[in-house]
Amino acid sequence: MSGSIFRRSDGVWLNEPERWTAQGDSLQIVTNKATDFWRETHYGFTRDSGHFLGFPTAEAFTAELRVQGDFQALYDQAGIMVRIGANHWVKAGIEFSDGRAMLASVLTDGQSDWATAPYEHDAGDFWVRATVANGVLRLQVSADGKLWPLVRLAPFPKASSYLVGPMACTPERAGLKVAFSSFRLIAPLGKDLHDLG
């Protein structure tokens, strides 16, 4: 299941963007205005308007994705999402915050949290990987698609299946262009926690 996954008929849009194209193994989108995924914490509001193309998974899986985007405005973001429903999901990738592109992940279990860290590589071109197995979520990010340091390890609800795929939002504007490619959805890798491959 690689190469032309964006041509598969089982991908389901949540908040399909007005402008998108899929060609070969590449999906290109342009974000709509004021799109976001967030639940309650700190701000008190709930947003479920971000763009997400979800593909159904088994109860355990590894998904990885290359993301290329020009992050410029506050909260511009793109990466990968794993979703059970409106109350249980994670998004991870690059988000523009505090004047720069940051590594960011939001884990939502009824309410959202938000973790950020400086990203020392080219934020306009990166890979992100999510592995879910046995009630555990593992997030990794790569600058080259070869070396995969750990970003986050967290409990995640067990389910018979999930939706996983590319995600992008622009809470403060419209018009972020993002290209997603090299999307793989496979059995969980099962590698040691500190195996960077």
TrEMBL record:
InterPro entries: ConA-like_dom_sf, DUF1349, UCP022704. It holds the Pfam family DUF1349. It comes from the Bacteria. This is Regulation of enolase 1.
